[in-house]
Amino acid sequence: MLNVVIFGAPGSGKGTQSELIIKEYGLDHISTGDVLRSEMKNETELGKIAKDFIEKGQLVPDELIVNMLAKVLDSKKDSKGVIFDGFPRTIPQAEALKKMLNERGTDVSVMLNLQVDEDELIKRLLERGKVSGRSDDNLETIKSRLDVYHKQTAPLADFYVKEGKHVAIKGMGSIEDIFGYIKEAINAVK
Ligand code: B4P
Known about the structure:
Layout: E1 2-8, H1 14-25, E2 28-31, H2 32-41, H3 45-55, H4 62-74, E3 81-85, H5 91-103, E4 110-115, H6 118-132, H7 139-153, H8 156-163, E5 166-170, H9 175-187
Parallel strand pairs: 1-3, 1-4, 2-3, 4-5
Helix pairs in contact: 1-9, 2-3, 4-5, 6-7
């Protein structure tokens, strides 16, 4: 299986690039952000809990995310590979993902770390906020999301460096150029 983790700060283009990767490689897509937004829309128990965290720009607790992910992963049993978009976001999530994949006889193939300057991230998210209707795309929440990213998520890069899976990707410039760098990284492990 070709399992790709797409990683980066909020607004770094994980969702945008995932769509192109799916088209090119025929992978299944698991976006924890999308799953959580759908749970919120349907006002499920998980959605109600997640809403409080997301609106404050905080991460949803690991246990809830890991249980949610295990269920989604089981629904993709016959897949030729998965792109994990927005997951893992903490070390415990990365450890849980490794265990879940190993139990299914597979592992992460590559982790793509999108590198984007902070000013550009804020600009993109404010721009998206004008049309997305997302309650977390406002300046105050964006700032706390970036703070949470630096404290809880960025240290995860080292986890994948140690696993020998980490590839830094220049995430500034045109969407097509960035996708070109991503294809090089995926083709090297496929
Ligand atoms: P996510 O849904 O994962 O979203 P994101 O980090 O905000 O955005 P992404 O990087 O996908 O940006 P996009 O491509 O859309 O998370 C939302 C929240 O859910 C989190 O804050 C957290 O609370 C919760 N959550 C999710 N997963 C979790 C987990 N595992 N554990 C705990 N909590 C979790 O790009 C952004 C914008 O930039 C778009 O408008 C796009 O058009 C634009 N753009 C993209 N590439 C561009 C480029 N090259 N140039 C110019 N603009 C570009």
